[in-house]
């Protein structure tokens, strides 16, 4: 260690890439970034257009959001061997970090009491107005110049959305995280999940979307003919089969109505190449089938029980701290409010920003795909996702000229090749662990960052992070894409790389959840607690070690999974 290095700032070291994952850096300076393969948001290869969008618009917008909160951080995103990599680095020189840290602490302290109000009354109205403008624009009728102008506005708006995303989500994650720290300090016998029970049971878009889908299944249950079609017809043929009866047509209307209300979403929050539910209702149909097959109960009933448990635990906690000085009780009340609102907004922001914004950007690029395909620049509309935004814009500016047919085919083959090779989890340069502060702790509890877990335990035991209380034994269903969710039966344990809000309806069917990624503040953990099912998150390698059909035991309090 040199004189300029300390234990907190160890000597940076290059991370060697695995032999089967050779890296050719497009920009040699990228090798200095501490890049992590973010399986929590994109576990599978990413299309070139999605990678371009994330690098050139998502990451810069996110960095603006950090700066707005006086957080000395920058976001970097790269597409390496078709996989999605993310790095967060200091935005100021190391010698300025102490002063920047004081400013960041003050910015966060100012944001925590007001972020929920700003979301409801400032940011959400702005976001809604942008969606209204997107929805009002007639894409097919636009001239080429009008379409290019609309794309410029779309990309600027997308960047602005990610500014808002981090302005709201940093305090929305820090609030619950700081509540956990405070609760652990105040309550002597605090369990690992107890503090999170104070924040459960608040209405949000993910729960409403799941509840509305269950209600849709109940309309299907009223007709024996419709139930028979759903039970015996392949998902891709259901809509045409339903057309043959009046009851079937009513369900079609219900499916279309649900898709218009909640269908501006797909599997993930990164990939815009995947069709949204409003384009392809297969996931809606599969979930309705599962609810009918398994006799799933009204999720609102369980939610009411979760609310009652929260109110009881809040009351008990206030009684336990009644002897503390008044400033401590006020601090608890402030952190309780921030934690509760943080969990609500974590789900709601995803609906309005992560999911719907991706859908809107996808629609715009699909129109470019139509025109590129008509001009013979690409073979078919969806090949547009095999191009970068720069290539699309340059072709459009020249009257939709060029030839990207071979390039699109080669890039699709490249994605297929790398899909068979597990991505290196870390590449670039290792600068050691991040400094310990409220933001890094909150991000760690969201992503599941932390010290390496014990790998010397029993070979049948996989260690992760406690996500939701309880213990359950069941059949593992290893599902990576939401389009395969029809294989999940009542009581099965969902084993997956990650979940995002579109996966929420599966929580009404699953007996438990296991994910490769995430921490106690991840979407999976929060929603599992709302549904009252055990979850172990951040169980790295679970989707590789557990085989579909294995009998497994999930202990959500210990954060373990045992293969029986």
What's a concise summary of this model?
The chain has helices at residues 48-68, 97-111, 115-136, 144-186, 194-197, 205-221, 224-232, 238-242, 246-262, 282-294, 299-320, 326-374, 389-397, 405-419, 438-447, 523-531, 542-545, and strands at residues 13-15, 34-37, 73-80, 83-90, 426-430, 461-463, 465-468, 471-478, 493-496, 512-515, 535-537, 551-555, 560-563. The chain is an alpha+beta fold and 564 residues long.
Overview of the structural elements:
- About 50% of the residues lie in helices and about 10% in strands.
- An eight-stranded mixed β-sheet has the order 6-13-12-8-9-10-11-7. The protein has a five-stranded antiparallel β-sheet with strand order 1-5-2-4-3.
- With about 575 residues, it is α+β, with helices and mostly antiparallel strands.
- The protein starts with 12 loop residues before the first strand and ends with a strand.
- The protein is built from 17 helices and 13 strands.
- The N terminus is likely disordered.
């Amino acid at each position: 260690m040199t004189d300029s290095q300390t234990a907190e700032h160890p000597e940076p070291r290059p991370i060697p890439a695995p032999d089967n994952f050779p890296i050719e850096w497009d920009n040699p300076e990228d090798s200095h970034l501490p890049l992590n393969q973010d399986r929590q948001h994109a576990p599978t290869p990413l299309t070139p257009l999605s990678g371009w969008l994330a690098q050139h618009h998502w990451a810069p917008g996110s960095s603006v959001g950090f700066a707005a909160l006086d957080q000395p951080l920058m976001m970097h995103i790269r597409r390496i061997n078709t996989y999605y990599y993310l790095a967060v680095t200091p935005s100021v020189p190391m010698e300025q970090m102490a002063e920047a840290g004081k400013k960041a602490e003050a910015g966060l302290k100012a944001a925590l009491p007001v972020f929920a109000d700003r979301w409801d009354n400032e940011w959400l109205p702005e976001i809604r107005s942008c969606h209204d403008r997107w929805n009002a624009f007639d894409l097919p009728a636009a001239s080429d110049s009008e379409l290019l102008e609309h794309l410029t506005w779309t990309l600027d708006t997308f960047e602005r959305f990610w500014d808002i995303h981090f302005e709201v989500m940093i305090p929305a994650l820090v609030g619950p995280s700081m509540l956990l720290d405070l609760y652990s300090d105040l309550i002597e016998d605090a369990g690992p999940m107890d503090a999170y029970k104070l924040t459960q049971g608040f209405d949000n878009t993910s729960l409403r979307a799941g509840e509305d889908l269950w209600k849709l299944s109940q309309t299907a249950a009223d007709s024996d003919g419709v139930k028979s079609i759903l039970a015996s017809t392949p998902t891709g043929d259901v809509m045409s089969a339903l057309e043959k009866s009046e009851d079937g047509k009513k369900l079609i209307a219900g499916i279309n109505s649900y898709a218009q209300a909640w269908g501006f979403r797909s599997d993930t929050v990164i990939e815009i190449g995947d069709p949204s539910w409003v384009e392809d209702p297969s996931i809606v149909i599969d979930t309705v089938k599962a609810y009918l097959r398994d006799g799933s109960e009204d999720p609102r009933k369980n939610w009411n029980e979760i609310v009652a448990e929260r109110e009881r635990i809040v009351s008990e906690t206030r009684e336990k701290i009644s002897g503390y000085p008044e400033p401590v009780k006020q601090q608890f009340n402030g952190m309780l409010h921030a934690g509760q609102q943080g969990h609500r907004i974590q789900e709601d922001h995803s609906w309005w920003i992560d999911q719907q914004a991706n859908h809107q950007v996808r629609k715009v690029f699909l129109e470019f795909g139509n025109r590129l395909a008509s001009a013979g620049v690409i073979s078919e509309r969806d090949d547009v996702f095999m191009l970068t935004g720069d290539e699309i814009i340059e072709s459009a500016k020249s009257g939709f000229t060029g030839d990207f047919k071979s390039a699109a085919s080669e890039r699709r083959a490249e994605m297929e090749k790398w899909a068979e090779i597990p991505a290196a989890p870390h590449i670039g340069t290792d600068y050691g662990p991040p400094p310990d502060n409220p933001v890094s702790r909150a991000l760690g509890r969201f992503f599941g960052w932390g010290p390496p877990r014990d790998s010397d335990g029993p070979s049948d035991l996989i260690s992760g992070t406690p996500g939701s209380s309880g213990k359950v034994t069941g059949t593992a269903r290893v599902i990576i894409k939401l389009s395969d969710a029809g294989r999940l039966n009542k009581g099965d344990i969902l084993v997956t790389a990650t979940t995002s809000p579109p996966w929420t309806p599966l929580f009404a069917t699953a007996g438990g959840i296991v994910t490769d990624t995430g921490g106690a503040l991840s979407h999976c953990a929060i929603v599992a607690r709302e549904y009252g099912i055990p979850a172990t998150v951040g169980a790295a390698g679970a989707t590789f070690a557990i085989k579909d059909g294995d009998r497994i035991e999930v202990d959500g309090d210990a954060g373990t999974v045992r293969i029986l």
